[in-house]
Amino acid sequence: MAFWRLVCLLVSMYSAGCSLAFAADDAQQPLTAGGKKPNIVFILTDDQDLHMDSLSYMPLLKKQLTDHGTSFRRHYCTVALCCPSRVSLWTGKAAHNTNVTDLNPPYGGYPKFVSEGFNEAYLPLWLQDAGYNTYYVGKLFNAQRVDNYNAPHAAGWTGSDFLLDPYTYEYLNATFQRNHDEPVSYEGQYSTDVLAKKAYGFLEDALGDEHEKPFFLTVAPTAPHSNVHINVRKVDGDFTEKTATQAPPVPAERHKHLFEDVKVPRTPHFNPDEPNGVSWISRLPQQNETNVEFNDDFYRNRLRALQVVDEIVDEVISRLDKAGVLDDTYVFYSTDNGYHIGQHRLQPGKQCAYEEDINIPLIVRGPGVPKGEVAEIVTSHTDLAPTFMQLAGAKLRDDLDGAAIPLTAGALGAEKGTRQEHVNVEMWGIIMSEGKYGSVLYPNHTYKALRVVGEEYSFLYTVWCSGEHELYDLKKDPYEVNNLYPASQETLAVDALDFPSTSGSTAGLANNTTADTVQLRRLISRLDTLLVVLKTCKARECTHPWEILHPLGDVRDLKDALSARFDEFYEVQQERVYFTQCEKGYIAESEGPMGARSYGMVHEMAL
Q1: Helix 191-208 vs helix 289-322: angle between axes, to the nearest 10 degrees?
Q2: Rounded to an integer, what distance in angstroms lies between the CA atom of residue 286 and that of residue 266?
Q3: ∠ CA(208), CA(144), CA(76), 5° rounding?
Q4: At 62, phi and psi to the nearest 5?
Q5: Which residues are catalytic?
Q6: How many CB atoms lie within 10 A of CB 247?
Q7: How much is the pLDDT for 602?
Q8: Taking the alpha carbons of 84, 88, 94, 98 in that order, is the dihedral positive or negative?
Q9: Nearest to 378 by CA among 27, 76, 86
Q10: Could you identify which of 342, 365, 374, 595 might form a hypothetical disulfide with 69, taking C-beta atoms 3.0 to 4.6 angstroms apart as the criterion?
Q11: Interatomic CA distance for residues 201 and 181, integer angstroms
Q12: Burial per residue of 181-215, b for 16 or more beta-carbon CB atoms within 10 angstroms, e otherwise
């Protein structure tokens, strides 16, 4: 950050925006009444969808959180896979900076989290430094196993009761490990109910010490993740189709009768007649009736498995209210990544850059949070650690890749036109479906993606390790079925894309376009260059990438960058995103380029 303070100082004659931006970054959320630090409860589900309407089947969540809080409709995970997403969440860093990119070693899992040094540098430790008691119940990371949970113990928790592999996803055969005790098997008991009792116990402990210290409690059930039986005790190295047996999630006995007629929403991209996408997705067969019926049942069991989570939300709120601390407590509800079933012909699973997998629930209730509101600002999982730290009054670190999420009406309004409009999405390695059909392991599922959501435009741009590209205009094509990326350079040079302009000005548009049109070539060059910055960004570079490209501050978003005066800079001077080969993890040498040029920066710094 010191570098960018220097840049702002050097170019202050050109831009007054830098000092204001840093002032906003340093601002703290107000404490609760009487100057007391707030309590924070975080309910984190596993693989919960937003786009298949799972929230609509959780009436207690609506009653206790949605109606009393704010839903962040444009919240994204930056890597749509459990362990990498959770590590990014708890560290505030993008996956290319954590280097935890898979579920198991050598590229991911709890051992990788430890070896990268994060067991000494992540959120619960920072919150403890800020004076908080910290508690965790449920799944923390994949590959935290019955034989490595104490090598070392996960640091930073006043009280913990972790689900352990290889039993994490077995709804009727879970193993929990409390504090520094030996693991305990709960075979035959419903895992989410067991987890609920443990969570209430920790909440009681936290409330008992609440007059001494505020608390941070995370409740992390595995619902609605599929039921997984791991067939080998230690999953390191190559993962195969025989490594694990995956089945629909198992509901509690009292919920098995629910939703008998519910089906996966039949959206335009559900099991389409024509394939779409690129790479292995473009070659998927259309699902037959038997396959679709199985997947509908899979979906129903996901909804049933979420009913215990719904009960947990209600009980937690009730206990906070009864203890008289609800008005002093923030309650967050989210998930690690989204999910798809049938969209683009995909079998049940995640890991794609499509909206179903990366756009996920985030609902917040607490002091000053608007009630029953929907926020349109863009947020991501890398923003959660700085958000929790800000609420706790902790000193914000300057090495985090996210920015604190505004929670009050005033703060939301202030950031509506200034907050970043982009999300960097990454993925490496392999992918395998979780259903009964088409459970084929696909290698080379490595890509870099960019999601840009502005007031007047909405794009997904993806570059695959195979060299294939995808570009979707979600304003016109919300289901991402029409890939606009041209098959040839000839097409690239002449095709155009509608791009509304609020100013009505033709400034910055090519001579052969109107005020409402911009060349597709121009758009792609900007998106690709922005992705070049984001795929290797660190700290402020991740939230303010346009400062890298335009240090004078005259470009703040995609719309500004589309000015014709920057055509040569983006279309000629910049390198494109590329891969030299498909890797199973983050190997920087196989991804390029490693940075982008800055517009006029060399000349300005010389002056």
Answers
A1: 20
A2: 14
A3: 80
A4: -65, -45
A5: 82
A6: 16
A7: 44
A8: negative
A9: 76
A10: 365
A11: 16
A12: eebeebeeebbbbbbbebbbebbebbbeebeebbb
- B/e letters for 262-285, b = 16+ CB within 10 Å, e = fewer, are eebeebebbbbeeebbbbebeebe
Q: Measured between alpha carbons, how far is 66 from 55 in angstroms, rounded to an integer?
A: 10
C-alpha 188: how far from chain center:
33
DSSP one-letter code for 475: T
- Given a cut of 80, whether residue 426 has pLDDT beyond it is yes
What is residue 230's predicted lDDT score, i.e. its pLDDT?
87
Averaged pLDDT score across all residues of the chain: 90
Phi-psi region of 563 (alpha: psi -120 to 50; beta: other; left: phi over 0): beta
**Ordered structural domains, the chain, with CATH:** 39-415 (3.40.720.10)
Q: Which amino acid is at 246?
A: Q
Distances (CA, A) of 282 to 344, 445, 570: 8, 13, 30
Across the range 565-580, mean pLDDT stands at 97
**According to the model, what pLDDT value does residue 518 have?**
64
Side chain identity at residue 7, one-letter code: V
Q: What is the largest CA-CA distance in the chain?
A: 73
CB distance 400 to 22 below 8 Å: no
- Both tokens of 523, joined, read 């758009």
pLDDT digits (tens, 9 = 90+) for 490-511: 454 445 555 544 333 333 333 3
pLDDT of amino acid 34: 60
Structural contact between residues 217 and 160, judged by C-beta atoms closer than 8 angstroms: no
CA distances, 59 to each of 63, 228, 247, 317, 371 (Å): 6, 28, 26, 14, 16
Instruction: Please tell me the distance from the alpha carbon of residue 533 to that of residue 412, in angstroms, as a whole number.
Output: 26
pTM (2 d.p.): 0.92
Using DSSP's 3-state secondary structure scheme, residue 120 falls into helix
In tens, the pLDDT along 471-483 reads 999 999 999 999 9
Instruction: Assign 3-state DSSP to the chain and report helix, strand, coil percentages, each to 5.
Output: 35, 20, 45
Question: How much of the chain exceeds pLDDT 70, in percent?
Answer: 87
The pair of three-digit structure tokens given for residue 426, joined into one six-digit string: 């990454």
Contact between 301 and 52 (Cβ < 8 Å): no
